[in-house]
Design a protein that fits this description.
The chain is an alpha/beta fold and 234 residues long. 34% of the residues lie in helices and 26% in strands.
Amino acid sequence: MASPLLDVRAIDAFYGDFQALFGVSLRVNAGEVVAVIGANGAGKSTLLKTIAGLMHPRGGDVLFGGEAIGNAAAFDVVRHGIALVPEGRRLFPSLTVEENLLIGGQSRRPGPWTLQRIYDLFPILAERRHLPSTSLSGGQQQMAAIGRALMSNPRLLLCDEISLGLAPIIVREIYARLPKIVAEGLSLIIVEQDIAQALKASAQVYCLQEGRIALQGAARELTRESISAAYFGV
């Protein structure tokens, strides 16, 4: 059996004295889409931040391509091939859409993603390329945030709450692009509160509750009852 692309091994994560993750383990294979679901405060964003190098685990480790990166700086994690689409998009408001995208390519990793490929994926960004990022709608900002991450030509894309605050039609439009992204050889971790979207888009699902894995399994095999029990802790 091939080794996973990402192997998160029993990590503990803290904010000061507050422990947010308790022995969390997760695996992502090459070309796989994995969903992480859970209520607010379950530890989903903390997990992504720890994988992305924005936080360092106090226990356990993160292996990527067989190499330990749990203590690597965020810029080194990007160079290894992991990119984060943060919750809330976090575009630079003083820059144009295109300038925001170009920032994503600063690592200069080789790969298929270029400005033109991003514009092919999200044509609305090409139309608004010279406008300030603040002129974009919420959905367009999410597209720009995904495009900026793809510009680093990652092997693993971390998407934190990509449907949060967006109209259902926009959510469907963004999710419809994910197969094209995966077709380029990427793996994805999608953090979602929208359980239906998460199950539809992913092969494997992990449910976090109060910083611990409450449920994991193949998306097609999990029942509504088991997910609800793990999600709400009932």
